[in-house]
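job 3f2a | input accepted
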Amino acid sequence: MQRKVGLLRGINVGGKRKIRMADLKAMCEKIGLKNVQTYIQSGNLIFNSDRKNAELENALEKAIAEKFGYDVPVIVRRENELENSISNNPFIEKTAELKRLHLTFLKEEPILENLEKTRTYNYEPDQFKIEDKEVFIYCEGKYHESKLTNNFFEKQLKVGATTRNWRTVLKLSELCKKE
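job 3f2a | predicted structure (179 res):
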């Protein structure tokens, strides 16, 4: 079975769309996911499954809607996809301060027209680079003060997205290795 990461968008933020991690874990086990773990309250899952990512995304979204009554977008990545993202971060050499780095996971690859248009935006000193289904972000200041938000990329690229800070990305990778 493959080790995978499930990233839920917009739960337990600002007291809205609350889901207890124990309940989320139990729901995941009920739909057949194995060795399920959660990480922090913001909707990070680590689990084993041989099902395709898109199939898992749909199954998780449906199960969450049925159990908790929320439409929660879910993005799934295999462990090796997460590792590739970590290896390919173009900003890792730029700073030793991990708090400046973020990764936006895209549900699908954006169409070329939206991709080219988005690449023309410049919000220096903050920077971004889009590669396949990831957006690597470097924020000179605080992420919540940047224009390079999850909503910005969803609007411009017209695809679903969810963002994690770099420490969380690294921790999810670490947890994938521990079965």
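job 3f2a | The chain has six helices and eight strands.
job 3f2a | closed
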